[in-house]
From TrEMBL:
Xref: PANTHER family: PROTEIN DCG1
Entry-linked InterPro entries: Asp/Glu/hydantoin_racemase, Hydantoin_racemase-like, Iso_Racemase_Enz_sf
Lineage: Bacteria, Bacillati, Actinomycetota, Actinomycetes, Micrococcales
Similarity comment: family membership: Belongs to the HyuE racemase family.
Name of the protein described by the UniProt record: Aspartate/glutamate racemase family protein
Amino acid sequence: MRILVANVNTTQSMTDSIAAAARAAASAGTEIVGLTPRFGADSCEGNFESYLAALAVMDAVSRYEGEFDAVIQAGYGEHGREGLQELLDVPVVDITEAAASTAMFLGHRYSVVTTLDRAVPLIEDRLRLAGLDARCASVRASGLGVLELEEDPERAVKEIVAQAEAAVGDDRAEVIVLGCGGMSGLDARIRERCGVPVVDGVAAAVAVAEGLVRLGLSTSKVRTYAPPRPKKVTGWPLSSA
């Protein structure tokens, strides 16, 4: 089984970290291929960058040469999953939905700890759109930018733990979800300090993607995610624009 894990930003080191976390969660025999978009922002922290990332990820996946069994979009709260589902016949898993749905198996309510406060409304909207908001106790910001997660991992853990503890103590959350692909690999350290289950979206997405492939299931093409209708699309694929 081969799973493409698409970073939503252009920072190669973050792609490498996300792919490493995905490999750690994958079963024996599952090949993880990390994709870095060829255009876009070096981090996604707002609507403009998120919509740009949606296009960039579709481009990166469309340009991949070779067969694959599933795709993971590794951006928390980012747009674009729906477009990929129209384009592809294989399962497409977004880490936002994979993490939140996994959290609901582990406790009554969950909280998301993300990066900057400006990302909170985007995540709230994506959870609402996916029908996963009813059991979300809160979405909290650590105050760290995406790139700061790599620059100072110790500070990242400290700030994430502080918000996670507040979510458990003040918001009555029972599970913590890491709300950024750049937080992948920090779940064990945060779990140890908080004493509650901590869900890494990349790891959760790998488990969901593998399960769907093994069950022989993929996106319904009957209505919402039917392939795009044949028509002239100027400048697509972008590689030939």
